[in-house]
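**Polypeptide and fold**
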Amino acid sequence: MKRYDKAFKEEAVRLSHEVGPKKAAEQLGISYYTLQEWRKRKNLHGEGAHIGSGHAYAAANKTSREMELEKEIVELRRANEILKDALGFFAKDRKR
């Protein structure tokens, strides 16, 4: 799978607005459907679109403290699930 940087995607979307998506995709040598997806993301996320693979779109607008707190929430939920499983295990053991 070929990867394109943000600048290329932004320019492709801009060109597609000028000449149309089919013609722009043909000129750039990319799939029409790929370009349509980039256009959709640009409409949905504005400047936060095309930030790279594996990154959440909302992360572009969040502070480092907000991202840190979200990571902590995920860790605490994971720990909570482990404790629930352990509680169930020991509760079964006491019934014997």
Observations:
- Helices lie at 6-19, 21-28, 32-45, 64-95.
- Residues 13 and 37 are 10 Å apart (CA to CA).
- Residues 64-95 form the longest helix (32 residues).
- The chain has a mean pLDDT of 83.
